[in-house]
Amino acid sequence: MQFETLAIHDPHTPDPATGSVTVPIYQTSTFGREELGHRPEFFYSRIGNPTRQALETSLALLENARFGLAFASGAAATMAALQILKPGDHIVSGIDIYGGTYRIFEQLLRPWGITISYARDESTESYARCLTPETKLIWLESPSNPLLRISDIRALAEISREKSIRVAVDNTFATPYFQRPLELGADIAVHSTTKYLGGHSDVIGGAIALNDPALHTIIKNYQAAAGAIPGPWDCWLVMRGIKTLKIRMKEHEAGALHLARMLESHPAVARVWYPGLPSHPQHDIARRQMSGFSGMITIALKGGLSAVEHLLHKTKLFTLADSLGGVESLAASPAKMTLGALSPEERDKRGCTDNLLRLSVGLEHPGDLEADLNEALEGIPV
After folding, report:
1. What is the Cα–Cα distance from 202 to 238, expressed in whole angstroms?
2. Shared-domain flag, residues 41 and 90
3. Which position among 170, 187, 234, 354 bears the catalytic label?
4. C-alpha pair distances (Å), 67 with each of 38, 215, 224, 316
5. How many of the other CB atoms lie within 10 Å of CB of 284?
6. Is 274 a catalytic residue?
7. Angle at the Cα of 141 (from 154 to 156), degrees rounded to 5?
8. Domain around 280
9. Which CATH number belongs to the domain containing residue 222 in this structure?
10. What is the domain count for the chain?
11. Which is the catalytic residue, given 46, 240, 261, 349?
């Protein structure tokens, strides 16, 4: 079946008990047992809940995976994926990653005795130079946050397989509609379902998809023990979002490509990062491993931080906010917001300069967004 069919018709609907065409919300903490010696499939919602199970099944279907697991946030999903490591292990990470992931690496994993190296750039050779005999995991975002760098997932999976190294890909920006890392050879796909999968800026959640039963057992056991699980209502909201994912992602992409082309020719804009533009340094890789380019754009303004502040003050349709992937357009300053906790030196290493602006293009009419940005860009020094 095609993607949009799988997103709507999963094994849990219609509900066999009532015929409901949407999965019921099992808003319960515990389930009654028939007798003392019987352990039913569901007995305590931290361990398992029918609504969460339905979401996890849907997530696996969309990523073409054997297993899906849902978590209370994207950060919780990231932390769960890292449970396949032990003290003494080594991670090679992409240089351009979400600030929350960097915080997990540096503040939580290093004290546990896990070491991390950051590839100097997104090239396969840069990752390969960081590998050591202790390397057990390559972690990457593609497209990355905030500079939308593209890593060659298939090439990284090939060099990793030779050395029994796992590859985890944060697939939040692309979504399973535009990219399926497991089909490219990755071992783990991670999502913040807060973003495009939920799609309406009304839920916090995370997800993991994978094929390896041994890895699934480790992460599933951690999910049950640590308890960072989403409630039934949160799961239902993400499932609601998934049903329209194809339609939304096509519109996000169309709007983003329209604005990226406009911004690339604007005199106040020094540079535009969007994988769908031929000018993007990894455009050919993106075309090869993605079926579309999603709705995120990052731009550098010629006027520096003051130009960013000017645009954010003037725009009417882009809300200044820390998240992304909703139906409404959002804007963020990576240097002051998502990567604000990093030192200036660390931000410089990552190319995160003060003049960057990250745009999450929503579902408003592209012409209205273009007019809004053009008006907001007026008066910025060129």
Report:
1. 9
2. yes
3. 170
4. 26, 10, 15, 42
5. 12
6. no
7. 25
8. 246-377
9. 3.40.640.10
10. 2
11. 46
Q: Which of 223, 362, 353 is nearest to 299 (CA)?
A: 353
Tokens linked to 103: 């915080």
Catalytic annotation on 170? yes
User: Do 177 and 215 belong to one domain?
Assistant: yes
Identity of the amino acid at 209: A
Pick the last residue of a domain from 243, 276, 293.
Answer: 243
**Tokens coding 2:** 């095609």
Element (H, E) at 192: strand 188-192
| Residue of 10, 89, 98, 372 with catalytic role | 98
Helical packing angle, 232-243 and 245-264, nearest 10°: 70
Q: Residue 69 pairs with which residues in a beta bridge? A: 208
Of the residues 52, 149, 195, 248, only one is catalytic, namely 195
How many C-alpha atoms does 108 have within 13 Å on its Cβ side?
15
What string of pLDDT tens digits covers the 382 residues of the chain?
899 999 988 777 788 888 899 999 999 999 999 889 888 999 999 999 999 999 999 999 999 999 999 999 999 999 999 999 999 999 999 999 999 999 999 999 999 999 999 999 999 999 999 999 999 999 999 999 999 999 999 999 999 999 999 999 999 999 999 999 999 999 999 999 999 999 999 999 999 999 999 999 999 999 999 999 999 999 999 999 999 999 999 999 999 999 999 999 999 999 999 999 999 999 999 999 999 999 999 999 999 999 999 999 999 999 999 999 999 999 999 999 988 888 888 888 889 999 999 999 999 999 999 999 999 999 887 7
How distant is the alpha carbon of residue 2 from its chain centre?
22
Tell me the helices (H) and strands (E) count for the chain, helix number first: 14, 12
